[in-house]
Design goal:
elongated; binds ligand BES; 36% helix; 2 domains; binds zinc ion; 15 helices; alpha/beta; six-stranded mixed β-sheet; nine-stranded mixed β-sheet; Leucine Aminopeptidase, subunit E, domain 1; 478 residues; Aminopeptidase
């Protein structure tokens, strides 16, 4: 599916189309790749604070980008990604199919720059009838003097993000619950992790009352996807379980959403996309971490058979829940998955969900709102990965007082809290089902979707969570 490939190439070779990025200190070295006239022009303009240059030649062209550099490293890396995304938009105009990427001097930002170029190149043209006209011609970026294994690793991560974005962008008319099951099976075949999709009978046998209740309005059966990545020599004794909310469309049910923006709810499977993407990245890179993935999948529709506010349901764990709002459906399906996770005696469970509008109101699309019972070590490590990948996280508290708000008069729990702190009361609801293992909950409702293209984040699905998770698993366990 991926049209752009990143490859490492050995020594500096001459290439008709060359992108050069360079930090301020190194600008004199540009005389190596520019003609004397070009270099003279460069110096003149650079003194006037111009940082971006384009030198067309008889055959090919050179693009030069000067980075300010010298900042805290996570910000410098993000600036490099953004600069890469800017440059590639210029390269597309020239309709070339391959460019070399070069830097002079310190090269610690080289792969970030390449990452920005590659991430910005995602296109979703499946439903465009004249797709060939719109498709960027660029097919390969040859990175000079980079560590070949790091480039292969990055290429796999980009591919994983692209799978997540593709799934996020697919409309419900294609991506129904059974189709998401098929997509998982196909990815498992392609990348070498195991996938089992449990259908409605199995889900009934497991008494997954949350998943079944949300699905009750539907003519399409729910699915429960179970995935496993078992490396040859895992660093963890007990698996890490990744759980993803897979609501393929969320109308809200009888507590129906307003039509304003409802179209974004095709991406309410953003948690599922993050988990699938993490599995692609982990398996393609043979990450030595034993992983289990659990994805409860359904739509949340309106029909005569649907649950209504006031209904009381029994979850897989045996707990009873008073459903006071059918739009708070994510926590119902996740609760059954979090209960299912206990059978693995996991060393850590992380759930990913487009769970609350409250998380979006609190942090916008700049950060993941997270909380959980895992150790401080785990929390600091995932926060660090958040800064490195620029998928930043902010911790919210799970103080017991917030739990008071989801106590029900008629059942063990109700599925909504009060009018405030909605991201936390959702987290408290999930926490109820996580006894016996360390757990993190990532509410990715904000970052998962870009209403307009922004830097290397293409419009709509961003694939939030994939790069973060890979980076965290790699650094925490290896
Ligand atoms: N899928 C939504 C949350 C959401 C909102 C994701 C906006 C992305 C953007 C979720 O199922 C939902 O509707 N949550 C409700 C919960 C409320 C009824 C307690 C919400 O946040 O409004
Ligand atoms: Zn909802
Ligand atoms: Zn939802």
């Amino acid at each position: 599916m991926k049209q752009l490939t990143l490859t490492a190439v050995q020594a500096k070779k001459s290439s008709p189309n060359l992108v050069v990025f360079i930090e301020r200190e190194g600008v004199d070295n540009l005389s190596d790749c520019l003609t004397p006239e070009e270099f003279f022009f460069f110096r003149q303009a650079y003194q006037r604070e111009v940082n971006s240059f384009f030198f067309p030649r008889k055959s090919g062209a050179v693009w030069v980008r000067v980075l300010k550099g010298g900042k805290e490293s996570s910000i410098a890396r993000e600036d490099a990604r953004l600069a890469g995304a800017e440059v590639i938009k210029e390269v597309w105009k020239y309709k070339v199919d391959s460019v070399a990427l070069r830097t002079y001097g310190s090269d610690h930002l080289l792969l970030s720059f390449a990452e920005g170029m590659a991430l910005a190149s995602f296109q979703f043209l499946k439903y465009v009838t004249k797709a060939e006209k719109k498709r960027h011609s660029l097919q390969s970026i040859e990175i000079e003097s980079a560590d070949p294994s790091a480039v292969v690793e990055l290429d796999a991560i980009i591919e994983a993000v692209f799978h997540a974005r593709r799934l996020l962008n697919e409309p419900f008319s294609y991506l129904t619950a059974p189709q998401l099951g098929e997509e998982a099976i196909a990815l498992g075949h392609q990348y070498g992790f195991s996938v089992e999709v449990l259908g409605k009978e199995k889900i009934e046998a497991l008494k997954m009352g949350g998943l079944l209740a949300v699905n009750r309005a539907s003519q399409t059966p729910p699915q429960f996807i179970v995935m496993e990545w078992v490396p040859v020599d895992p660093k963890n004794d007990q698996p890490v379980v990744l759980v993803g909310k897979g609501v393929v469309y969320d109308t809200g049910g009888y507590s129906i959403k307003s039509s304003d923006g409802m179209e974004y709810m095709k991406s309410d499977m953003g948690g599922a996309a993050a988990v699938l993407g993490a599995f692609v990245a982990a398996s393609r890179n043979k990450l030595p971490v034993h992983l289990v993935g659990l994805i409860p999948v359904t739509d949340n529709l309106v029909s005569a058979s649907g649950i209504v506010p006031g209904d009381i349901i029994t979850m897989a764990s045996g707990a009873t829940v008073e459903v006071l709002n059918t739009d708070a459906e994510g926590r119902l399906i996740l609760a059954d998955a979090l209960h299912y996770a206990k059978r693995y005696r996991p060393s850590l469970v992380i759930d990913y969900a487009t769970l609350t509008g409250a998380a979006v109101r609190a942090l916008g699309n700049q950060a993941i709102c997270y909380m959980g019972t895992a150790s401080d070590n785990v929390k600091r490590a995932i926060e660090q990965s958040g800064f490195s990948t620029y998928e930043r996280l902010v911790e919210f508290p799970l103080w017991r007082e917030y739990g008071e708000e989801i106590k029900s008069q008629h059942a063990d729990l109700k599925n909504i809290g009060g009018p405030t702190a909605g991201a936390i009361t959702a987290g408290k609801f999930l926490e109820f089902f996580t006894e016996g293992y360390p757990w993190l909950h990532l509410d990715i409702a904000g970052p998962v979707f870009a209403k307009v293209a922004n830097g290397y984040k293409t419009k709509e699905g961003t694939g939030a969570g994939v790069r973060l998770t890979y980076d965290f698993l790699k650094h925490y366990f290896t």
